[in-house]
């Protein structure tokens, strides 16, 4: 039995908005990163589901998902490297305390 | 012409990256001077080899290039060359010397990403280009590893970049769901402007609005510019912004043509808010790098006026604006960079008091570039602003143009504050005289020539106007 497309889209929308909520409320840089990952994965689900249900003849959505995963991994690698650098310099990674740049 | 050779600009740029990578490995430390020379020469070759405008596509329409796109690529290459000329003073510092090779390779990677971004005929290639342009930039922003401002700026940049690209991707997924294709041409022929597609357009706009630092998405800009190495901030403010503006204009006009009424309204609001907010905050800034960040936000608002026009005249004036903006902004950042490197990090406006007495040439360059940014008549900035306003006016956006004009006057005030500091404010202990390197002087000379001459030489705009197609 096929699950209706709507359920997938509801899941992905919830994931997206959880990510946005987390991005604005969390204080830890790593938690911010996790929130963004959640958002990126929501879009990946969207692409795969649209392709599978609405346009099964072509593979564009699946390809987009694959590239999306790869690029998200690259972004995460760079982001974690930078966060480690922040930690080395400041000895903590909470956004409330990283406030040297403001004006 | 459909062949792999239509990617000639990208292929030659990739070759340059590989050559620089090998040179960085082979040349003995300290190799920063040789690398800078090599990078500048290679960029000059790249500029000459690809100066001929091409009209072609490859990979079944996924990649395309028109004469206008070729011209934009040439402009971006020239801008990057100027940035490389100015980079030497920063890279010769003891703690960055060994990273010179990385700087050139990462910068050229972002340039390659921008080339793909503006040449894309498909959202997949566009997205890859966008990310290729923003991920290495995050590394560049955080390149001054042992200064924690740089790391903080890098963290802010990469997290905001990821957030906005996630929003943009969600918009693209909606667009895919309603149209079934990722090719610009196919999407344009299918979409009709349903509410879901309008939402997709707004989400997409957020992604590029981040790169352009338009106002609701501008939070990262001042922090990143202040924390990043000055050379990187210069690159970020002109090259990255110019490429994003061009890509945004061609996609809005080509793909979202059925929703013109919607995105025109969106742009009207964003332009007015961007210019006004950025101008009002810029007045309060005393740190020059932060100040230039707000200045660049308001300049992005003016660039968006050309997008709003949505005509070939708008396209020509956008590219013209980007050229003038590149030379003027790189001149200002060049001077800021020189003073920062020669005085151990002085970037406050008060530090510039009395600069004219000790460094008259630098003061003159800075003054002319600031006049150009403000749009004072004999200099190029006046003409670029004039053409942008004319394009938007011809398309019937009288109110937005009027509000932008008022903001030009406000901006004149804060640009002149720096000029006043250099020439009028008394200072018993001004920054001492110093002699800058040859390449930096060449870079500043090019910028100065551009600021003075580009507006008067009318064939530049004429050429762009003839090449511009939507």
Textual characterization of the structure:
The complex is a heterodimer of chains A (103) and B (470). Chain A is 75% helix and 0% strand. Chain A is built from 3 helices and no strands. In chain A, α1 (5-25) packs antiparallel against α2 and α2 packs antiparallel against α3 (60-90). Chain A is elongated, with a radius of gyration of 17 Å. Chain B has one domain. Chain B has 19 helices and 2 strands. In chain B, a hairpin with a 4-residue loop joins β1 (56-58) and β2. The model of chain B has no long low-confidence stretch (mean pLDDT 90). The chains are: A mainly alpha (103), B mainly alpha (470). Chains A and B meet through α1, α2 and α3 of A and α5, α6 and α9 of B.
Task: Determine and state the CATH class of chain A.
Answer: Mainly Alpha
Helical amount of chain A: over 70%
If you average the pLDDT of chain B, what whole number results? 90
Count of discrete domains of chain B: 1
Report the principal-axis shape of chain B.
globular
Order of helices and strands of chain B: HHEEHHHHHHHHHHHHHHHHH
The rounded distance between the terminal residues' Cα atoms of chain A is 58 Å
In short:
The complex is a heterodimer of chains A (103) and B (470). Chain A has 103 residues and is mainly alpha-helical. Chain A contains 3 helices and no strands.
Write out key terms for the chains shown.
heterodimer; A: 103 residues; mainly alpha; Helix Hairpins; 3 helices; B: 470 residues; two-stranded antiparallel ribbon; 19 helices
What is the fold's blueprint, element by element?
The complex is a heterodimer of chains A (103) and B (470).
Chain A: H1 5-25, H2 29-53, H3 60-90
Chain B: H1 8-26, H2 32-49, E1 56-58, E2 63-65, H3 67-91, H4 100-119, H5 123-141, H6 148-179, H7 184-190, H8 195-212, H9 220-227, H10 230-254, H11 260-284, H12 288-309, H13 312-342, H14 355-358, H15 360-374, H16 380-394, H17 398-423, H18 438-453, H19 459-467
Antiparallel strand pairs in B: 1-2
Helix pairs in contact in B: 1-2, 1-4, 2-3, 3-4, 3-10, 3-13, 3-18, 4-5, 4-10, 5-6, 5-10, 6-8, 6-9, 8-10, 9-10, 9-12, 10-12, 10-13, 11-12, 11-17, 12-13, 12-16, 13-15, 13-16, 13-18, 13-19, 15-17, 15-18
